[in-house]
Amino acid sequence: AQSVAQPEDQVNVAEGNPLTVKCTYSVSGNPYLFWYVQYPNRGLQFLLKYITGDNLVKGSYGFEAEFNKSQTSFHLKKPSALVSDSALYFCAVRDRNTDKLIFGTGTRLQVFP
Amino acid sequence: EADIYQTPRYLVIGTGKKITLECSQTMGHDKMYWYQQDPGMELHLIHYSYGVNSTEKGDLSSESTVSRIRTEHFPLTLESARPSHTSQYLCASSKTGLTEAFFGQGTRLTVV
């Protein structure tokens, strides 16, 4: 079965510092991985995806993610955090057999001024 | 912004009432999904559809039902609402293939 894990419930970072939100995956075959962000009382917004190709994927709002096959990871990164980046972040994998989108448990990012 | 709409955004309703949460998308997507999410918590897939007249139950058991009579419309119905149904319900859609899903704004349901 396909799954993703987000080991941190919360990540705290000072504004201007780099941020990393971790995600590891467990899939059979090639993984199809996604990152979403959720602001309070809103739906999820798509940030970026990895299907194939370059291991460094660039997405919306200055975010990027690094796909690492040997470590089965897909960590979300940003070089310089903003207070407005504070939100709930979800990693997801698309199940190749059922085509369902399976989400991790989410990581709350708090950026302090 | 994605063209997927959910109504109502907020609903407070009494126990035992029948409710329907609406979800519509104008992108012509074949696949549609319903997720249940307690505030700030993980998402649980409760229903999905591959296309018209196709519906499947998700990973989390739910007393709700869905229908897919038209491509653009994927309503969720609770025949008899209970306080345990209090949650946020998120609708999403995607094209066939290895693509991202687009989410609506969600419906926050409170059953009193």
Question: Can you characterise this structure?
Answer:
The complex is a heterodimer of chains A (113) and B (112). Chain A has strands spanning 3-5, 10-14, 19-21, 24-26, 33-38, 44-50, 56-58, 64-68, 73-78, 87-94, 101-103, 107-112. Chain A is mostly beta strands and 113 residues long. In chain A, strands 2, 5, 6, 10, 11 and 12 form a 6-stranded mixed sheet that branches. Chain A has a 4-stranded antiparallel sheet with strand order 3-9-8-7, with no helix packed on it. In chain A, a hairpin with a 6-residue loop joins strand 10 (87-94) and strand 11. The radius of gyration of chain A is 13 Å and the shape is globular. The mean pLDDT of chain A is 93. By secondary structure, chain B is an all-beta fold.
Task: Fill in the keyword field for this structure.
heterodimer; A: 113 residues; mainly beta; 6-stranded mixed beta sheet; 4-stranded antiparallel beta sheet; 12 strands; 51% strand; globular; B: 112 residues; 7-stranded mixed beta sheet; 0% helix; 49% strand
Give the number of DSSP strands of chain A.
Answer: 12
Query: Share of helix among residues of chain A?
Result: under 10%
Distance between the termini of chain A: 41 Å
- Helices and strands of chain B, in order, run as EEEEEEEEEEE
Q: Compute the gyration radius of chain B: what is it?
A: 13 Å
Which structural category fits the helices and strands of chain B? mainly beta
Strand content of chain A: over 45%
What is the approximate shape of chain A?
A: globular
Greatest interface by residues involved? A-B, 23 and 26 residues
Helix/strand class of chain A: mainly beta
